[in-house]
Amino acid sequence: MDAYHNLAVSYDRLTNDVDYGATVAFYNEIICREGLHPRTAVDLACGTGSVTAILARKGLQVIGVDMSEEMLTVASQKAGEAGVFPWFICQSLQRLRLPKAVDLAVCALDSLDYITNPDDCREAIHRVYKYLNPGGIFIFDVNTPEKLRAMDGQVFLDEDDDVYCVWRGEFNEQTNICSYGMDLFQRKGNLWERSFEEHCEYAYSAEQLAGYLKAAGFTHIRVYGDRRMEAPAEGEQRIYIKARKGKIK
């Protein structure tokens, strides 16, 4: 079963503590410091479209890309309810193919870590470069290897009145992958429906990702702490990376 197949309808309830507004505000801080005024954007691995909708409400023409049809269905419904109408495309990032180039590419919530084959990750970054306009900017975040290794053996629980989710992390040093099996119980009327999904994340280092960015042609690469305009601290759990395409005036 693909990740997020069953989780899609409950994803927003289980992640209601995620501050998407703060994430987009950090994007904006980076963009302003770079002196950019993007008009078009792509939200990569957009999930249920929370970041997509915020960008669209700011007046950007936005494309949301995700490989889960179920997540995109939720994203489309949510965008319509918010009165914005991004263009949603079902694609994997390593096969990214946009109808036009954009000024801004973002990828939130460690989504790049879900590409567990480094060659595919390298290809995804090449595709992003291809579909950015000259001078465009790519901003994304990943979980640090320290965080993913620390998840080994940890058990996590999320719940509300209509959904109960329990999962246990396992980190494999040989594959460099953190996997977690997720047991999901969702209320269906008077009954509960049980399903299972497996999620896997590759522990990319900042140096590894910077190498992929440089190989793709990106310049002005910088690594930040978690939504902070400064270098990551020791033991940082999440980092942000920005890179630019082409010559910068």
Task: Provide structural commentary.
- 28% of the residues lie in helices and 35% in strands.
- With 249 residues, the protein is an alpha/beta fold.
- The chain has a 7-stranded mixed β-sheet, sandwiched between helices. A 4-stranded antiparallel β-sheet has the order 6-7-8-9.
- Strand 7 (163-172) and strand 8 form a beta hairpin.
- Helix 2 (20-33) crosses helix 3 and helix 5 crosses helix 7 (206-216).
- The chain is globular, with a radius of gyration of 18 Å.
- The model has no long low-confidence stretch (mean pLDDT 95).
Question: How would you sum up this structure in a few lines?
Answer:
The protein is an alpha/beta fold and 249 residues long. Helices cover 28% and strands 35% of the residues.
**Helix run count:** 7
**Secondary-structure element sequence?**
HHEHEHEEHEHEEEEHEE
Span between N and C termini? 47 Å
Low-confidence stretches: none
Radius of gyration: 18 Å
Structural class determined from secondary elements: alpha/beta
- In what order do the strands lie side by side in the largest sheet? 3-2-1-4-5-11-10
Strand residue percentage: 25-35%
Helix content: 25-40%
Overall pLDDT: 95
* Overall geometric form: globular
Sheet with the most strands, sense and barrel status? 7 strands, mixed
Q: How many beta-strand elements? A: 11
